[in-house]
Amino acid sequence: MAAPVVPFRVDDHYDRDRASDGRSRFGAYLERHARSFREDGELTDDPAEFAAAVFLTAVPPIMSPGYVSVDMRVTRMGRHWGEDGRCALAFTLVSALPTVLERGMRREWRTWETVSLGGVRDWVPPDDNGRPVALPMLELRVPLPVGDLPSPRYRDGVPELATAKRAVVVLVGELNRRLEPVLSGLTAAGVA
């Protein structure tokens, strides 16, 4: 039986051990990106907006390596605002060709390839145009668990580190719960 897929992991030890201030790399990035927590010059007091901003600060490309490590099949992350004003996190995942297309396209068409750079595997598109390329992707949107998120707190205009970390832990728990079955399904389909 395959090991369970864990889409996101918080790494407090690496964060603390590699911190230039001896406390937290994540805290330094929050300070550097404090403008992400302002709308029209005001600090956000919305727990979902705050949590989305701290999460997106904690992952690549802003933090690399991230305070939160991300499964290699996640190629993009961002916020999505619904018509109802609610915030969700949006994820684009590397996917497999739909079964109905697989047979006809498999020989002529190229798709995602895996490469290993510095011991880290990553999904990349083919880098030449000698054959047609199909890059199937799956976009997922996960509503934020507003009732479980901490209220935003700031110190001198910068998100308070303990509150930001709590928001990240809540989101990572919810995102892992929602994305694990999807990534496990992709693994079973051969997109591992």
What would a concise description of this structure say?
By secondary structure, the chain is of the alpha+beta class. Helices cover 32% and strands 24% of the residues. It contains five helices and eleven strands; from the N terminus they run E-H-H-E-E-H-E-E-E-H-E-E-E-E-E-H.
Task: Give a written overview of the molecule.
The longest helix has 28 residues, at 161-188. The radius of gyration is 19 Å and the shape is globular. Strand 7 and strand 8 form a beta hairpin. It is 32% helix and 24% strand. It is of the alpha+beta class and 192 residues long. The protein contains 5 helices and 11 strands, in the order βααββαβββαβββββα. It has helices at 12-17, 25-32, 47-58, 99-105, 161-188; strands at 8-10, 38-39, 42-43, 68-70, 74-81, 87-94, 113-117, 120-124, 137-143, 154-155, 158-159. The strands form 5 sheets. A 3-stranded antiparallel sheet has the order 5-6-9, covered by helices on one side. A two-stranded antiparallel ribbon has the order 1-4. The model has no long low-confidence stretch (mean pLDDT 89). Helix 3 packs across helix 5.
